[in-house]
Specification:
Low-confidence stretches: none
Largest sheet: 4 strands, antiparallel
Shape: globular
CATH architecture: 2-Layer Sandwich
Radius of gyration: 13 Å
Strand order of the largest sheet: 2-3-1-4
Strand content: 25-35%
Number of helices: 3
CATH class: Alpha Beta
Number of domains: 1
Order of helices and strands: EHEEHHE
CATH topology: Alpha-Beta Plaits
Structural class: alpha+beta
Length: about 100
Protein backbone atom coordinates (compact mmCIF):
# COMPACT_ATOMS: atom_id res chain seq x y z
CA UNK A 1 0.00 0.00 0.00
CA UNK A 2 1.39 3.41 -0.96
CA UNK A 3 2.24 5.80 1.85
CA UNK A 4 2.19 9.59 1.82
CA UNK A 5 3.89 11.84 4.34
CA UNK A 6 2.90 15.49 4.55
CA UNK A 7 4.99 18.19 6.15
CA UNK A 8 3.27 21.50 6.89
CA UNK A 9 5.77 24.33 7.33
CA UNK A 10 6.03 28.09 7.40
CA UNK A 11 8.92 29.79 5.67
CA UNK A 12 9.79 33.33 4.68
CA UNK A 13 12.11 31.89 2.00
CA UNK A 14 10.02 29.81 -0.39
CA UNK A 15 12.81 29.77 -2.97
CA UNK A 16 15.22 28.14 -0.50
CA UNK A 17 12.54 25.61 0.42
CA UNK A 18 11.93 24.82 -3.27
CA UNK A 19 15.69 24.45 -3.84
CA UNK A 20 15.89 22.05 -0.89
CA UNK A 21 13.05 19.93 -2.28
CA UNK A 22 14.60 19.89 -5.76
CA UNK A 23 18.03 18.95 -4.40
CA UNK A 24 16.54 16.03 -2.45
CA UNK A 25 14.77 14.73 -5.56
CA UNK A 26 17.85 15.13 -7.77
CA UNK A 27 20.12 13.33 -5.32
CA UNK A 28 17.80 10.72 -3.84
CA UNK A 29 15.28 9.64 -6.49
CA UNK A 30 16.24 6.04 -7.18
CA UNK A 31 18.42 5.90 -4.04
CA UNK A 32 16.13 6.60 -1.08
CA UNK A 33 14.11 3.50 -0.12
CA UNK A 34 10.61 3.66 -1.54
CA UNK A 35 10.77 7.36 -2.49
CA UNK A 36 8.48 7.98 -5.49
CA UNK A 37 8.43 11.77 -5.70
CA UNK A 38 7.12 14.88 -4.00
CA UNK A 39 5.09 18.03 -4.42
CA UNK A 40 5.30 21.43 -2.78
CA UNK A 41 2.14 23.49 -2.37
CA UNK A 42 1.82 27.10 -1.20
CA UNK A 43 -1.28 28.36 0.61
CA UNK A 44 -3.03 31.07 -1.42
CA UNK A 45 -4.33 32.78 1.72
CA UNK A 46 -1.08 32.48 3.68
CA UNK A 47 1.85 32.78 1.25
CA UNK A 48 4.44 31.74 3.85
CA UNK A 49 2.63 28.44 4.54
CA UNK A 50 3.68 25.37 2.55
CA UNK A 51 2.51 21.77 2.37
CA UNK A 52 5.17 19.28 1.32
CA UNK A 53 3.76 15.98 0.05
CA UNK A 54 6.13 13.05 -0.23
CA UNK A 55 5.11 9.75 -1.83
CA UNK A 56 6.56 6.37 -0.87
CA UNK A 57 5.88 2.83 -2.04
CA UNK A 58 5.05 1.79 1.56
CA UNK A 59 5.20 2.95 5.17
CA UNK A 60 7.97 0.44 5.80
CA UNK A 61 10.12 1.89 3.02
CA UNK A 62 9.43 5.40 4.32
CA UNK A 63 10.68 4.36 7.76
CA UNK A 64 13.84 2.89 6.23
CA UNK A 65 14.36 6.19 4.44
CA UNK A 66 13.77 8.16 7.62
CA UNK A 67 16.53 6.26 9.41
CA UNK A 68 19.19 7.14 6.80
CA UNK A 69 21.88 9.74 7.54
CA UNK A 70 21.05 11.49 4.24
CA UNK A 71 17.48 12.01 5.43
CA UNK A 72 18.61 13.29 8.81
CA UNK A 73 20.94 15.76 7.07
CA UNK A 74 18.07 16.93 4.86
CA UNK A 75 15.85 17.41 7.93
CA UNK A 76 18.53 19.63 9.48
CA UNK A 77 18.62 21.73 6.31
CA UNK A 78 14.83 21.94 6.37
CA UNK A 79 14.94 23.27 9.93
CA UNK A 80 17.26 26.03 8.75
CA UNK A 81 14.81 27.36 6.13
CA UNK A 82 11.52 27.11 8.04
CA UNK A 83 10.02 29.21 10.79
CA UNK A 84 9.02 27.11 13.80
CA UNK A 85 8.44 23.39 13.93
CA UNK A 86 7.09 21.31 11.04
CA UNK A 87 3.79 19.43 11.38
CA UNK A 88 3.92 15.87 10.05
CA UNK A 89 1.04 13.79 8.71
CA UNK A 90 1.28 10.10 7.80
CA UNK A 91 -1.27 8.65 5.40
CA UNK A 92 -1.97 5.34 3.72
CA UNK A 93 -3.30 5.75 0.20
CA UNK A 94 -6.76 4.23 -0.08
CA UNK A 95 -7.63 5.34 -3.59
CA UNK A 96 -5.95 7.14 -6.48
CA UNK A 97 -7.97 8.55 -9.36
CA UNK A 98 -6.35 9.77 -12.55
Amino acid sequence: MKFVQTILVRSSDGAALADLMAAWHAGEFGNAPGYLGSRMLVDREAPNRYQLIIDFSSAEEAQLNNDRPETQAWAAKLSAVIDGDPEFGNFDELQAVG
